[in-house]
Amino acid sequence: MPTGVHLRDARQQLFDAAERVLLRDGPSGLTSRAVTDEAGCAKGVLHRHFTDFDAFLTDLVLDRAAQLETQASALGESAGAGTVAANLTRALTTLFGPIPMGIIPLITFRDELRARLRQARPGGGIAILAQATTAISAYLADERERGRIAADADIDSLTLSLVGGGHLLFADRDLGPPTTAAVDTFVTAAIADVVQRRPA
User: Fold this and answer.
1) Is 71 exposed, middle or buried, given 0-12, 13-18 or 19+ CB atoms closer than 10 A?
2) pLDDT, tens digit, for every residue of 116-160?
3) pLDDT tens, 62-120?
4) Where in the chain is the domain with CATH 1.10.10?
5) How far apart are CA 181 and CA 162, in angstroms?
6) pTM surpassing 0.90?
């Protein structure tokens, strides 16, 4: 690939290329060479914008986590409307979409990436899972205040159940994402007690 190829907004094009590689080849296929080949540029382009590949991955994760926070805001806006189960089903499907589910194992298995993310976001937990946890916890607290779930609902435990179970539902790349009906069945079972015990 000629080194003179100019990329307009090179960082974003490299991030988009990394997403495509992640979706196609999984976290193990995400290398600097794969990213630059996918972006159609010389390998040196990546290193002109990032000190090394882990710096690139750190910025990629932070960029996608910020996008997820924006998407998660839709969950907060849905409080009080529709059903709690439908809102949570929609949110889990977004929060654990293909890109977030590709990024989570990337973070898990790259020690240097985890270390850099901890520096960038102290106390923030694992990026992506942290966004999901924050969004769902805030939504449940809002619905509890509105009386749509029980006043004594344990928000922290319920959030962990939804995030942990949701992650497991979406984790198998070979089977593909679960159906909306499967996610709804899981959510409905997870929240059944707190929905049934809410004040009449």
Assistant:
1) middle
2) 888 887 655 576 777 888 889 999 999 999 999 999 999 999 999
3) 888 888 877 778 888 888 898 999 999 999 998 888 888 888 888 888 888 888 888 88
4) 7-49
5) 15
6) no
Query: Which CATH number among 1.20.58, 1.10.357, 2.60.40, 3.30.2010 corresponds to the domain 59-196?
Result: 1.10.357
Q: What is the Cα–Cα distance from 57 to 134, expressed in whole angstroms?
A: 22
- Which ranges of the chain does DSSP label H, i.e. alpha helix? 10-25, 32-39, 43-49, 53-77, 84-95, 98-109, 111-120, 129-145, 155-170, 180-196
CA distance to 7, 11, 101, 102, 163, per residue, from 21 (Å): 18, 15, 13, 10, 26
Query: How high is the mean pLDDT of the chain?
Result: 85
Q: Give the residue range(s) of CATH 1.10.357 domains in the chain.
A: 59-196
Q: Domain 7-49 maps to which CATH number in 2.60.120, 1.10.10, 3.90.1690, 1.10.1220? A: 1.10.10
DSSP string, 105-128: HHHHH-HHHHHHHHHHSTT--STT
Q: How far is CA 66 from CA 63, 128, 149, in A?
A: 5, 9, 29
